[in-house]
Design a protein that fits this description.
This protein has 5 helices and 5 strands.
Amino acid sequence: MSPAGLTFEAEMTMPDEIHIRDLQLRAIIGLSEEERRDRQEVLINLILYTDTRRAASADSIDQAVNYRTLTKRVIALVEGSHFYLVEKLASEIASVCLQSPGVERVRVSVEKPGALRFARSVGVIIERAREGV
């Protein structure tokens, strides 16, 4: 057992996390005619689960998840989207993230600030894994 109480096997399989917080974008999202006419603010948070040991050892972007490139793809998806449901938007964002080499699993949070009266925001959180992981 390690000092943290984890076995060596658990330490070897525990994924590391890359956080992308409070990505504020605008998208056509919603059911009503008004929601579909104008872009609305959406707030996106991502947790990318990956193993960062090779990147840390090599100190090279070639061994790392390139979160800048991944974020650009998420921005392009969201700003070009016309989905009805935040669930669909979250699912598509997860798919984009899982296409990035090294991302084993992703947790996606999508919120629509001001979508409900008296609520700061409404949203969904989903978690998806790469097939075969």
